[in-house]
Design brief:
This protein has 287 residues and is of the alpha+beta class. It has helices at 6-9, 147-152, 171-180, 190-196, 246-257, 268-271, 277-283; strands at residues 17-21, 25-29, 38-43, 47-54, 57-62, 68-72, 76-77, 85-87, 91-95, 104-109, 113-114, 116-120, 123-126, 130-133, 137-138, 164-165, 168-169, 199-200, 215-218, 221-225, 230-235, 240-245, 262-265. The relative contact order is 0.13.
């Protein structure tokens, strides 16, 4: 792995205990204080490894992507249970009873996971959670085929540094979650994705080369092509997920990030359901 992002994926020393996120989302922060920078998020159902605790926080490594940071222990529970379903709707409520009239406990966003213990009517009964509408869930092996179409569901979602939920996310968070819905594991940050996601397109600027699903990278930014000419990306200019012509985006972004540094294409069939080597290295022998 490149030294440029090694620290973000370097497993802490010592033993760990596996926990599971039992809140709608858990912020993963740079330091163990409530207002520290949010590096990323763990969604409901994600599993993490807790290496040590400091006050209200635990030093965790996310098993989804190997990322390291500090999470509030109150958002985690043990033991970690094997998940059965993934939230496929943009967002959905967890209800206290199998009724849409019952009190909602919290919200789960696309990509979160649940442990279904049974069905009651149109609801799945989720362990340590409540009741989730079955139509908002994808079962084992049910994945999307078009990451660019998944990304478009997040259109107008507010930009949030470190976010990757439907209430707020950043550029690489959008990319990671769009491909996760298709069963493809990608690293968390833009530079990691540029180094490790798919294959480079050296002639990407040639007419007719780009296609839907290709990734365009700047230094510190990434977007997904929705077709050969149009980009969707979470960005701080619009402060939201936006769609715009790639040519116009390149002109505008050049003032901040210079010209694009490249493009990459991911082999969906070859990448789906695979544990990539970078994640095996990050998690170690227990991956």
């Amino acid at each position: 792995m490149s030294e440029s992002f090694d620290q973000r994926l370097t497993r802490p020393e010592g033993a760990f205990t596996r926990f599971q996120v039992t809140a709608g989302v858990a912020a993963i922060r740079r330091t163990p204080v409530p207002d520290a920078e949010m590096l990323t998020q763990a969604l409901g159902g994600d599993t993490v490894r807790v290496f040590r605790e400091e006050g209200e926080f635990g030093l965790v490594q996310m098993e989804r992507d190997g990322y390291i940071g500090w999470a509030l222990m109150e958002s985690l529970s043990a033991p970690a249970l094997a998940t059965t379903h993934r939230i496929s709707a943009l967002r959905t409520y967890v209800f206290s009873e199998p009724s849409i009239k019952s009190a909602p406990r919290y919200m789960l966003c696309q990509g979160a996971q649940i442990v279904a213990e049974g069905e009651e009517g149109r609801f799945l009964r989720a362990a340590r959670a409540g009741y989730v509408v079955r139509e908002h869930c994808a079962g084992p092996g049910e994945y999307e085929d078009r990451p660019e179409q998944v990304a478009q569901r997040y259109l107008h979602t507010p930009y949030l540094w470190g976010g990757k939920e439907s209430l707020g996310l950043d550029c690489s968070g959008l990319v990671q979650m769009a491909f996760a819905a298709c069963g493809v594991s990608l690293p968390r940050d833009t530079d990691m994705q540029f180094a490790l996601a798919g294959d480079p397109l050296p002639d990407w600027q040639a007419p007719g080369t780009l296609r839907a699903g290709d990734l365009i990278f700047w230094k510190g930014h990434v977007g997904i092509m929705t077709d050969s000419e149009t980009l969707i990306h979470a960005n701080a200019h619009h402060m939201a997920v936006a769609v715009e012509p790639l040519e116009g985006a390149i002109r505008r972004i050049a003032a901040l990030y210079d010209q694009p540094i490249g493009a990459r294409r991911i082999d969906m069939a070859g990448s789906r359901h695979q544990t990539p080597e970078w994640l095996v290295q990050a998690l170690g022998d227990e991956a």
